[in-house]
Amino acid sequence: MITLDDNNSNPIYEQVYDKFTELISSNILKVDEKLPSIRELAQILKINPNTIQKSYRLLEKNKYIYTLAGKGNFVAKKDQYEQSHITSIKLKLSENIRSLKISGLSNEKIIEIIKSIIEEDNL
Amino acid sequence: MITLDDNNSNPIYEQVYDKFTELISSNILKVDEKLPSIRELAQILKINPNTIQKSYRLLEKNKYIYTLAGKGNFVAKKDQYEQSHITSIKLKLSENIRSLKISGLSNEKIIEIIKSIIEEDNL
Amino acid sequence: MITLDDNNSNPIYEQVYDKFTELISSNILKVDEKLPSIRELAQILKINPNTIQKSYRLLEKNKYIYTLAGKGNFVAKKDQYEQSHITSIKLKLSENIRSLKISGLSNEKIIEIIKSIIEEDNL
Amino acid sequence: MITLDDNNSNPIYEQVYDKFTELISSNILKVDEKLPSIRELAQILKINPNTIQKSYRLLEKNKYIYTLAGKGNFVAKKDQYEQSHITSIKLKLSENIRSLKISGLSNEKIIEIIKSIIEEDNL
DNA sequence: GTGGTCTAGACCACC
DNA sequence: GTGGTCTAGACCACG
What is the mean pLDDT of residues C65-71? Predict the structure, then answer.
């Protein structure tokens, strides 16, 4: 379910966080579904439990999951995180588009680029 | 010309780098124009000369500027960096769009969002 | 493993870089093998950690090693750097041969010189 | 006769030195021919006379030219510099060939490479 | 304990 | 004056 990329220079806790936000946003992990326990996942990925702990705290902070002490970590309801999630992506998009404008590209040219990305991008 | 944002968690050398890529991309700094000397800029921003040097080395590596030892740092020709600059932004855009798709947004919805960003964004 | 030459006018960080490219090219340091930590090597060579870091950054830039923050620096896969490594040497050879031609040596004479170097050179 | 390359990161005095060693080695400047005066050349190249001075001192030290106080700088006899000139190039060649050996290339492969350089190189 | 960032300040080569 | 190199040492994020 989760795999790590050794050549990725991002911190491990962030990689784990990103994987889970993807799994949750795309509904592969469904509302109220239980995430793997910290110790279990740590063993599977052969990393330190503290690292998983950090990822889970971050997911909780951003409302992707909720924690029940002694029971585990569970996927939160969509509306808990969805808006903030999309808003944060919009913010990044906004910065990138600003960069393209600064480079002198016209609005039309930018939309053209975006469209080609959306269509080519078969993920 | 250049200001630092204390609240920004990015490394200082990156903030300086970003400011200059903007000034250069937007043609405010023109080809062969001299950048402030390392020491001078360090004094103005009240940071260490080594930090500026790191920014300038990064700018040089990415072909935004060229360095003449004993003379200073100068804006490079556009075609030296422009393509790689835009390509790297496209890459980031591509990742953000992928995130939106994963969140379940349709292509039409995404283009709508982009258009609203482009038009609102009056920079 | 690594020694410095006080009489060498090259910057220390370059000497360290050169030693490692040799150790890696000659397979004495093998793929994924860990390099000494920055602090450790700095202590052994009695130089500043920043200087080692500069060497390691250069090795990373040229794909000889990859860096995992908090874990260490490791030898990269051969194909990451090999081609560019040999190409850069060819470039230098080309310049030197050009110099000999300019001095009036014939092609035959040059090949003769090269052969004698290759055979004498028992490294 | 002499031109400078602004994009060349080599020190100017070295560029000037290199140009003259080429002109002298290739017999374009002939024995006992007078070099341009320091001030004259400085004006033409729009650089500081001290810089030319440094190049000429280096040429003199390496026996490419001889200086007559109050008269000028003149091309020295071939045998004054030729041997040391060629020896220094051999040294560089030797280092490059050593690098190729370390990378695992066989003697035969190296000679092959050299031959292709010599033949392609139409300078 | 690892690398990443940053400071304060020195000395050098070059112009 | 300029940038390039180097030192000594600090603080932080990460594992």
Answer: 89
pLDDT over 70 (residue A58):
yes
Torsion of CA A77, A83, A88, A89, to 10 degrees: 90
Interval C1-16: pLDDT, tens: 778 877 777 889 999 9
Tokens linked to C88: 């850069």
Q: CB-based contacts of D121: which residues, under 8 Å, 6+ apart?
A: C94, C97, C98, C101
CB B36 within 8 A of CB B44: yes
Q: For the whole model, what pTM was predicted?
A: 0.82
Spatial distance between the Cα atoms of C74 and C64, rounded to a whole number of angstroms:
9
Question: Which residues, at least 6 apart from C118, have a Cβ–Cβ distance to it below 8 Å?
Answer: D97, D107, D110, D111
Residues of chain D with pLDDT under 50: none
Contacts of D50 in chain B (CB under 8 A): none
Using the structure, give the distance in angstroms from the CA atom of C70 to the C1' atom of E2, rounded to a whole number.
4
Nearest residue on chain D to C91, alpha-carbon basis: D117
Amino acid at residue number C103:
S
Query: Residues 6 or more apart from C9 whose CB is under 8 A from it?
Result: none
Distance from CA of D13 to the nearest CA of C (A): 18
Determine the distance in angstroms separating the CA of A9 from the nearest CA of chain C, rounded to an integer: 6
**Contact by Cβ (8 Å): B123, A98:** yes
Which of A28, A81, A102, A109 to mutate to probe the B interface, most B CBs <10 Å? A102
Q: What tokens does C74 get?
A: 């490791």
What angle, rounded to 10 degrees, do the helices at C12-25 and C78-102 form? Answer: 110
Contact flag, residue C9 CB and nucleic strand F, below 7 A? no
CA distances from A22 to A28, A89, B97 (A): 8, 13, 13
pLDDT tens digits along B48-61: 999 999 999 999 98
| B104 contacts A121? CB cut-off 8 A | no
Task: Report the protein residue whose CA lies nearest the C1' of nucleotide F4.
Answer: B69
Tokens of B40: 């001078």
CA-nearest residue to C67 within chain A is A9
Contact D123 C26 (CB under 8 A): no
Q: Which residue has the tokens 């005066």?
A: D37
Minimal Cα distance from D89: which residue of C?
C96
CA angle B13–A97–A10, rounded 5-degree value:
50
